[in-house]
Each structure stands twice: as C-alpha cells, then as structure tokens.
C-alpha cells in the first residue's frame, strides 16, 4: 500500500471541510493581510491610471482582467509549489488556509447578525449604518426597518453564490489557481460593475465574465437553499422557495442574483424589494428580525451542504484517481 498516495487522497478530501471550519473559527484576517484586499488595491491603482474614452476603457478593463486573473492564478500555483516542501499535515493546513481566504460565509453571517441585533434594539439608524457598511452598496438612509431586514436577507442569499459556492466549485474543477482567478474577477466586478460614466465600460468585461462564471454556481446555490429550507422549515416552504425561484428569478438585472434571492423570498414567505428595481414576491409575511434570523440559519445550512457536496466530489475524484493507479 502506498501511504504517500493515501495522504494525498486524505488531503484533497479534507481541504474544503477544513477551509470551512477555519472560516467559521477564525473569520477574516485584517485587510493588510488579505489577498482580496490586495486585489482591490491593485484594481484601484489601475482605475486611477485608466485612460478616457469608452472603447479604450473597455480594452483597458479587459487587459486588466486578464492580467489580474493570470497573476492571481500564478501566485496561488507558486504558493502550492512552495508548500510541497512541507510535511503533508502542514501542507493540508496551508492549502485549506488559501481556500479559506476565498470564502466569506462567516463574515457575511456575522455582519447580518449585527444588523439583526440593531433591529431587535429598535436602533434603525445603526441598522442602516451596519447594512451599508458591510452588506450593500445602495443608499440606506431612508430605508424602513423592514426594508433593512429585507436587504440583509437579500445580501446573505446573493453572496452565498459569490462568497462560498462559486469558490468551492472553482476548487473542485481547477484547484486553488482557479479559485483565485475567480476571486479577482469577482473583486473587479464588485468594484467596477456599475452603470455610471466612470465604470460602465471599464467594468463591462469583468461584469460579463462574472455573470458567466456564476451561472452554474448561482443555480447550485438556489438548489442548496431549497434543500436547507426543507430541513429548517419543512416541505411546504421548500416547495414555495422553488416555485418562487422559477417565477421571480428573472426580475433582477443580474442573470444570477435573482436565483438565490427569489429562492429565499419563497423560503421565508416574504416579498424582497429594491426600490425602483425589483420586487421578488414569495409571500406577504412581514420581514422581521425573526425572519432575518431564519434566513441566516437557512444560508448557514446551505453552506454546510455545499461543503458536504464538495467533500463528496473530492472523494469521488480521489477514488477515481486511485482506481487508475
């Protein structure tokens, strides 16, 4: 029996689970040590140097996207190569740590929990501040308490795709270099993907590629939310979640965001709205702090199911590789 191969198989199988546990126990490091923050700093410098003119800015954005994704993948690949000199338990921890840095489930849930706590204290101004600081880019100054709770529900549902399911899918398909290439694209879209004169053409390449990369993960995330709803609230709520997704998901401008947000609206039996943009009608219940808490629980369970699926995929791949050796 080749014990070295057994260690490789064990490592591959455990990395998604260990990354998930590290995310839950450690959260995110300070920005000065976070690779996503470094990507953001790079993009900010590039944006400052971008030339004028729609076509030129589009090309500039496309070249930046290609260079940033390539550099991110190369750095991740180089780090993995250097880690080969480590004993396999340390290498396991190192690779799981690299994957963990691409995940943000714990941080998003904690931010939504802070909004929930402020709403329970009837401190709506603080809830608005926390919402705008951590979760959404929209103006929150005149949102009602129910709108604040609804926006927090939308954010944790939408970000289940970007911050968790998509990085895990990238890891399953192409490993850590693919994870960090994806994260650069997602960061570029989050910083540049706006319909204003400064970003419309600069961010268009990132926005379009991000839509393509998230197409399948968004639908996987919607399925995971439906399964989690079944476990938390029962089959009737899960059926309403799935019906609402099929009926309402196309109402958002993004081809992907509506998948998880509409599913969550149906799961909670509420209508999630963004003024002047969409209304995802999953029911008429009021969006209270208790509803936000239930939504957070559903998203946490869906994230756990995603890890279970990633681990199962690693088991299948490892067994297939072992069968060929």
Question: What are its keywords?
Answer:
325 residues, mainly alpha, two-stranded antiparallel sheet, 11 helices, 2% strand
Description of the structure:
By secondary structure, this protein is mainly alpha-helical. It has one domain. The protein is 77% helix and 2% strand. The chain is built from eleven helices and two strands; from the N terminus they run ααααααααααββα. It has a two-stranded antiparallel ribbon with strand order 1-2. A hairpin with a 3-residue loop joins strand 1 and strand 2. The longest helix is centred in the middle third of the chain and has 48 residues. The radius of gyration is 20 Å and the shape is globular. The N terminus is likely disordered.
Structural class: mainly alpha
Strand content: under 5%
Task: Using the CA coordinates, give the radius of gyration.
Answer: 20 Å
Terminal Cα span: 11 Å
Number of alpha- plus pi-helical segments: 11
- The strand order across the widest sheet is 1-2
Q: How many beta-strand segments?
A: 2
SSE order, as H and E?
HHHHHHHHHHEEH
Q: What is the residue-averaged pLDDT?
A: 91
Helix content: over 70%
Give a short synopsis of this structure.
By secondary structure, this protein is mostly helical. The chain has eleven helices and two strands.
